[in-house]
Amino acid sequence: MDTLFLFIKAFVVGGLICDIGQLLIMRTKLTNARILVIFVVSGVVLTALGLYKPLVDFAGAGATVPLTGFGYSLAMGAIEAVNRYGFWGAFVGGVTRTAAGITAAVVFGLLNALIFKPHAKP
Amino acid sequence: MSRLPFTPDEYGEIVSKLTPPSRHLRGYLRAFWVGGVICVLGQALTLWAETLSLGETTAPMFTTSVLVFLGTTLTGIGVYDRIGKYAGAGSAIPVTGFANSVAAPAIEFQREGAITGVGARLFTLAGPVLAYGIAASVLVGIVYWLIRGWVL
Prior knowledge:
The complex is a heterodimer.
Chain A: H1 2-27, H2 32-48, H3 52-59, H4 61-64, H5 67-85, H6 89-115
Chain B: H1 8-18, H2 22-51, H3 58-76, H4 80-87, H5 89-92, H6 95-108, H7 114-121, H8 123-151
């Protein structure tokens, strides 16, 4: 039952965060790249203000899987690394915490370009 | 010359007023359920990672890497762009969409070669995201360091 509730929370919160993006697509003339940048930077800022962690504690993957969650990892990494290493932690923490995601995207992206041929746009 | 009853601007206004809100509603519903399902998949992977007894730091890495792998692979076989056409932000906002934004231009610009084609185009969308995201995190770290020094 608890597990089911966990999935429902992830579904609803994740869906709502995506709908904020959908709102930006339909109501503004912002390009996709701008919307993605806005989401990541919002995640960083909300985390720094202490507003995003409660959402992560509540919704789990519903809050960490959207790009705001990438911003959350960047900011949490920077803060934790400052606690551990002092000033230079600010330069280390963000990328360290997100290294797996970034590396996976680059490596799998490269492999994809080696294996697959371009498709016609749907 | 017959006179039109409306100027083109007035006509556009009338059309947008009479367009049923259902088209917008449909967009939100699609983004909601597709985005929600991707997050549920992420939650399932996180629970799976716990049974594999991965640590608190490695479990999120596992989840993200698997989602990124799915995103790039579905892009490679041409499925993710179809999902994107249906779901809009529902597939663009989750981390699988970030993976798609890395893989899609790299595949598309293969013809321009391994360096300026694939290598550079990997970052057409990821570049700005990483640049501003990382810069913001450094700023947060420095501000936190200053405040911490002030208080202690």
